[in-house]
Amino acid sequence: MTPVGKPERATQYRVVALFRDKLEYQYLGNWIDREDNRNIEPELLSAFLKKQGHDESLIWKVLYQLEKAAGDTSKSLYDRNRAVYELLRYGVKVKAEVGENTQTVWLINWKRPLENHFGIAEEVTVPAADAKAHVKRPDVVLYVNGIALGVLELKRSTISVAEGIRQNLDNQKKVFIEHFFSTMQFVMAGNDTEGLRYATIQTPEKYYLTWKEASEVENPLDRALTLLCAKERFLELIHDFIVFDAGIKKLCRHHQYFGVRAAQDHVKRREGGIIWHTQGSGKSLVMVWLTKWLRENEKDARVLIITDRTELDEQIERVFFGVNEQIYRTKSGADLIAKLNAKTPWLLCSLIHKFGGKEDGEEVGDIPGYIEEVKKALPPGFKAKGDLYVFVDECHRTQSGVLHDAMKAILPNAMFIGFTGTPLLKADKQRSIEVFGRYIHTYKFDEAVKDGVVLDLRYEARDIDQNITSQKKIDQWFDAKTKGLTDLAKAQLKQRWGTMQRVLSSKSRLEMIVDDILMDMETRDRLKSGHGNAMLISGSIYQACQFYDLFSKTDLAGKCAIVTSYRPSIATIKGEESGEGQTEKLRQYAIYQKMLAEWFNEPPETAINKVETFEKEVKKKFLEAPGQMKLLIVVDKLLTGFDAPPATYLYIDKPMQDHGLFQAICRVNRLHSDDKEYGYIIDYKDLFKSLEYSVQDYTSGALDGYDKEDVAGLLEDRLGKRASGSRRRGKPLKRFASRWSHRRTRRPISAISALRSPATRNSSRTTSRIG
After folding, report:
1. Dist CA 376 CA 333 (whole Å)
2. What is residue 742's predicted lDDT score, i.e. its pLDDT?
3. Radius of gyration of the chain from Cα atoms?
């Protein structure tokens, strides 16, 4: 192993030797003094194309097209890089002579990776675009057939890899050598202590990835380079695991790669199964990469993706459109059968609950009605055209019962693959395996947190009656409201606040929750700055409307919204008017009407018909302008399939358990800006028992398939860890789902119980839990 502190140059010598001697790249030389270093080396590329049997005239035309795409400065780096990737991936379309047929010339031999030319150059001096700027000199550049596909910045072991990442980002600026990155697929940085971090063009530092895979190589940098840059693996990653997703170029993480590879093996054996990749870890991209592989490698392949929630249906459509794949959304069961009975489209998605006419948020659709509709639509002798692969998203919900029996009866030759972001409950597991098959690949919440793929979650239970009205809370409120005032002004104002405790104590429970959330908005950094926002899960649509009505009279007016399955119409309030005041339905209708009228700034009579437009607009603002849409009040909608990186706090005022609970809390585990360190779960419903059970099942997850003695050590080690950190409110909360404490009875108790408010901790109920 390289000694700590050894000069950077020594590390570079060793890395170059690794590529030359072990990975068998040709050493192209030290190019510090070489002139006209480029990301496309014409001599090397021409030599490769000649070996493929192409003549000089055709080679010249291919070089012209490639250099034109790479050097078009009228386009952004992203667009140039994408154009180059299209030529690498799908070949260059050229005509040898006018009037002749177009032929495809491959810049890379994808089918026989080892027949390509792999080269490595060091100290590659590249002049900056701005003559006044410094010359840049990437440490190591990887060339395949003379095209620069990888760049590596190295640092000594005492200097952070982050320095190398920032160097790469600087190099991509227009004033420096942005033009050199138009062909680049892998952008890497490393040292001997932290190993290697990899990404692609324009990737922010926090999204650089770490590769994990078993290897006998001890040095972490050498290990990662050996695994990632081996000739066949390097080209496979470029060919099969890159996407240009709605303006962002993305590479795969290790679990996505191994998940797709495992699924490919299952496909080759015609064996279905389940892919469990935890919420927020890029499950949709696994679907994309697997779908594209099926399209190119399995004859007549067609893919049907089935979901049971509108948000998931829309999310999948967006992801595929983002990678230039047209996916057809079926309109009904009959439409699905009609499309399957034809040869096109090859890619479809279908929403189960729509078929039964059920509203969003309901857990079970009208399955008998759906089956009946599908059967009625079946023509005599129906057989789905093509080789059909059925992906069932969130299969833990839609996997059981007669629905899949019916689907398998209708599509007997189809291969089924289930996808889930949460583990299967023990009660469902056997049935799920009967339907889909065993686990194809798993990637759990803990693994994702350790890898920095998602954020850890911090949990706090708040007792409304004892916590919200405490003197400490009132003092906090006072300090937040009087920040910036002189001591004299504070003293005068505090005299008027003498009755605040009595006022708070007389408020309703919902009013107390509103006050508590407003306090967080004033005092929690992410919420106060407007960089982050929050969601509140209410127990019913009517309660959600009550919450909104209270918030609309505070500073959050215009910055909060309700998103539920409710669609206000005259029909919903028909017969409700009795002359004795508003019923719940009338009140609910009136609050929605007021909210919509204020949002669209138009008469209530017309605004009431714009709920869908309203929801699209508030979701967009929640994602893109969190300081202007600080709180979404929901019941069931948006708790699955809604990726909202700014969302930082989730307030729960609804009984929840199992899958519904896990999917909900993962709304706040997405990476965002650097000031988002955790996702926070605030529980007003004392869901401890539900959380405890769910966490236990989550940590066991796929291990249920093993003998207890094979996994007993691992499980006991987790349960035996005593939670660390302060228990005082306002300090960092306990890690959710990863640290545990024990009662004397040895019954595992989740660390989430340790973070109740001071008043609640003193109650006998909480003390008995902590033990």
Report:
1. 9
2. 32
3. 29
Helix (H) or strand (E) holding 351: strand 347-351
b/e code 337-356 from CB counts within 10 Å (16+ = b) = bebbeeeeebbbbbbbbbbb
Give the other-Cβ count within 10 Å of 717's Cβ. Answer: 9
Q: State both tokens at 632.
A: 């979404």
CA distance 461 to 689: 12
Residue 686's pLDDT is 75
Contacts of 429 (CB under 8 A, 6+ apart): 704
Q: How many CB atoms lie within 10 A of CB 484?
A: 6
SS3 content of the chain, % helix, strand, coil (to 5): 45, 15, 35
Burial of 133 (0-12, 13-18, 19+ CB in 10 A): middle
H/E element, 419: strand 415-420
Longest dimension (CA), the chain: 92
Chain-centroid distance, C-alpha 137: 34
> What letter does residue 20 receive in the DSSP assignment?
I
Q: What is the pLDDT of residues 516-543, one digit of tens each?
A: 999 999 999 999 999 999 999 999 999 9
**Residues in CB range of 427: below 8 A, 6 or more apart:** none
**Whole-number pLDDT of residue 770:** 23
Q: Evaluate if residue 736 carries a pLDDT over 50.
A: no
Q: Cα–Cα distance between 140 and 152 in angstroms, integer?
A: 5
